């Protein structure tokens, strides 16, 4: 397994995996498959630019297949520059249960520690996703609140646990 920061050259593989995650676990992501499907690939390439603090990390098999991702971003507003956020964490079924999610999160957190003004890392996770919450807690995240009905699909509400850790 190899983990590295994705670049614009990885846009197609990243977007294919992201779309798979949106289809497989629609309640786990704020974006919908339908909304994401309308995103031009050039915009995805721009999101993977290495010229900003924001980053997406990918886990690749020994054959070069992208099977897991985790993103991290920072806020540029002066009063919120101290915070980073985790987004889009997903591991394909073929990689689940092998510690890939942990490796991706550890990589993202190690990267966060290189940004001098980032002091906190925040994330939101579906309250029903016990395995992800357990992983995040083992990495040092703590729940500081719950957003009721954070996501709503087909008339069903999904709560999200709001979690944070100090760097």
TrEMBL record:
Kindly give the CDD domains that the UniProt entry links to this protein.
Answer: NAT_SF
User: Looking at the Swiss-Prot or TrEMBL record, what is one Pfam family this protein matches?
Assistant: Acetyltransf_1
Entries under SUPFAM superfamilies matching the protein: Acyl-CoA N-acyltransferases (Nat)
What would you give as a GO molecular function for this chain, any one? acyltransferase activity, transferring groups other than amino-acyl groups
Q: Which residues form the N-acetyltransferase domain?
A: 1-167
Please provide the record's keywords in A-Z order.
Acyltransferase, Transferase
- Keyword hit for Transferase: yes
Under which name does UniProt file this protein? GNAT family N-acetyltransferase
InterPro entries cross-referenced by the UniProt entry = Acyl_CoA_acyltransferase, Bact_Acetyltransf, GNAT_dom
